[in-house]
């Protein structure tokens, strides 16, 4: 089984996660058989480690981590590799892939530019 973890920073205000929940819903609408989970670096649960463990317990043999960040900042470059290394040690049979930050993908940049120019 293949799982996808949408990974974001997190915030103290639970409303902050609404767009991420909506993103998860849209991914699931397009791929209903997918195992798609949210995870957060801080302030919210589950943590990335907890989400990866839950994927494994659900039967995943591969987990793709999708950073829902505008860019590959310090958290993605510094913190995430350490979290994933610990997950690999806990689950040596698991294939973990860290994808590029969503905000760096050309189609996302194009969509944001469209929204900026459209206004409102």
From the 3D structure, determine the CATH topology: Rossmann fold
- Count structural domains: 1
- Shape label: globular
Overall helicity: 40-55%
Strand order of the largest sheet: 2-1-3-4
The CATH first-level class comes to Alpha Beta
Gyration radius, in Å: 15 Å
Which regions are unreliable across 5 or more consecutive residues at pLDDT < 50?
none
Q: Give me the number of helical elements.
A: 4
For the termini, the CA-CA separation is 41 Å
- The assigned structural class equals alpha/beta
Mean pLDDT: 95
SSE series: EHEHEHEH
Overall strand count: 4
Sheet with the most strands? 4 strands, parallel
- The CATH architecture: 3-Layer(aba) Sandwich
Please describe the topology of this protein:
Layout: E1 2-8, H1 18-30, E2 35-40, H2 48-57, E3 62-67, H3 74-90, E4 95-98, H4 106-118
Parallel strand pairs: 1-2, 1-3, 3-4
Description:
The protein has about 120 residues and is α/β, with parallel strands linked by helices. It has one domain: Rossmann fold (3-Layer(aba) Sandwich), CATH 3.40.50. Helix content is about 45%, strand content about 20%. A 4-stranded parallel beta sheet has the order 2-1-3-4, with helices on both faces. Helix 2 packs parallel to helix 3. The longest helix has 17 residues, at about 75-90. The protein is globular, with a radius of gyration of 15 Å.
């Amino acid at each position: 089984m293949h799982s996808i973890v949408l990974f974001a920073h997190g915030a103290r205000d639970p409303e902050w996660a609404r767009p991420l929940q909506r993103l998860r819903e849209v991914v699931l609408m397009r791929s209903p058989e997918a195992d798609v989970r949210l995870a957060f670096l801080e302030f919210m649960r589950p943590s990335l480690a907890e989400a990866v463990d839950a994927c494994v317990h659900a039967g995943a043999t591969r987990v793709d981590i999708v950073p829902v960040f505008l860019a590959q900042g310090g958290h993605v470059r510094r913190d995430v590799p350490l979290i994933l290394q610990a997950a690999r040690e806990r689950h040596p049979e698991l294939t973990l892939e860290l994808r590029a930050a969503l905000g760096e993908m050309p189609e996302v940049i194009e969509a944001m530019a469209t929204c900026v120019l459209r206004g409102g």
